[in-house]
Design brief:
- The protein is an all-alpha fold and 327 residues long.
- The chain is built from 14 helices and no strands.
- Helix 3 runs antiparallel to helix 7 and helix 6 runs antiparallel to helix 9.
- The protein is globular and about 45 Å long.
């Protein structure tokens, strides 16, 4: 090995994970702005409103960073309404599966405008569809909107990149249709069989099965690897730290999620988003490990489907296709 090759290789390995100080500072400020309202709501009103706000952050974070404030808040409205409908469908496997599939299909036209605009919609729908007991639809809708508003206000000061990554219609609908079938069937099974924490399986699928635009195969691998690595990280945190410390770590993970969204590094974003969602849901180690197991199972199935989609796109000559600015 040539002299100096070792340090150079280590530098290349560190580069994708390195966060410049201005980005880190912005991420910490965003974390404070997002965490304080959730903590206040948790103390004053309890878990369901605070959980809804956290789900709003998951659904709206990328959009709030990329889009103008009014547009980002407008997109939060259908997410909140869909969550309210999902709460009302709790315990109805077939109808719930159909609604989950519909939520997946609605992502396609949004992706033709900009990839990821409505990516959080099926994720939120699946989470609320698979509740073990009926919840309060109004609480879900109101506090999802509140969380979205907080995210938009906090992130409105971050300069917008102005970069759009529209997905070509055939690719967008291929992915949305495939996700609708896989997520719909899985949602039906986990609800009909009352699988404990089974919603983590279709929820993970909604995070992995998304159109990837350019460099399709490498981004698909990043998405899969990030989900698996994030699940393993969640287990390590819960094994090594007490519950209160794990909550603090969840906040730090959110800061990392924000930082990597700002840097446009999707693999790193997914790596820290997965344990953030797992830790935010609370509970003891045994239950969390069960959730992680469901996450890994969902990632494994989604990995097979995602790579098959990439193969189909490559065979059809669609791989890496994006739409026009007017799409």
């Amino acid at each position: 090995m040539p002299e100096g090759a070792g340090p150079a290789m280590r530098s290349r390995l560190r580069a994708p994970w390195a966060i410049p100080w201005p980005v880190a500072r912005t991420a910490v400020l965003v974390l404070v702005g997002l965490a304080v309202p959730v903590i206040a709501v948790l103390v004053a009103l309890g878990g369901p409103p605070a959980f809804a706000m956290n789900m709003a952050y998951v659904a709206c974070l990328t959009v709030a960073i990329k889009a103008r404030a009014r547009f980002a808040l407008l997109l939060a409205v259908p997410v909140a309404l869909a969550a309210a409908v999902a709460v009302g469908l709790t315990g109805q496997p077939f109808v719930a599966a159909c609604f989950a599939a519909l939520a997946c299909l609605l992502v396609a036209p949004a992706n033709q405008l900009d990839n990821g605009l409505m990516a959080g919609l099926p994720t939120i729908v699946v989470v609320y569809l698979a509740q073990s007991a009926p919840g309060d639809a109004a609480v879900a809708a109101v506090w999802l909107l509140a969380g979205a508003a907080v995210a938009v206000v906090v992130l409105s000061r971050i300069p917008k990149t102005g970069r759009r990554t529209p997905i070509a219609g055939n690719v967008a609908y291929l992915h949305a249709g495939t996700m609708a079938v896989v997520v719909g069937v899985t949602t039906y099974v986990v609800i009909a069989l009352d699988v404990p924490h089974g919603y983590w399986i279709p929820m993970t699928m909604t995070m992995v099965l998304r159109p990837v635009g350019s460099e399709a195969r490498s981004i698909a691998y990043q998405r899969i690897a990030g989900t698996v690595l994030g699940a393993v990280l969640a287990i390590a945190i819960l094994e090594l730290l007490p519950a209160t410390a794990a909550i603090v770590v969840a906040g730090l993970l959110l800061a990392l999620v924000v930082a990597y969204v700002l840097l446009g590094r999707y693999g790193q974003f997914v790596t820290f988003l997965t344990p953030f969602v797992i830790l935010s849901a609370g509970s003891d180690l045994d239950v969390a490990i069960e959730r992680v197991g469901m996450t890994l199972l969902g990632a494994a199935v989604a990995a097979v489907v995602a790579l098959a989609l990439v193969h189909v796109e490559e065979r059809l000559g669609w791989a890496g296709r994006t739409g026009s600015a007017a799409a």
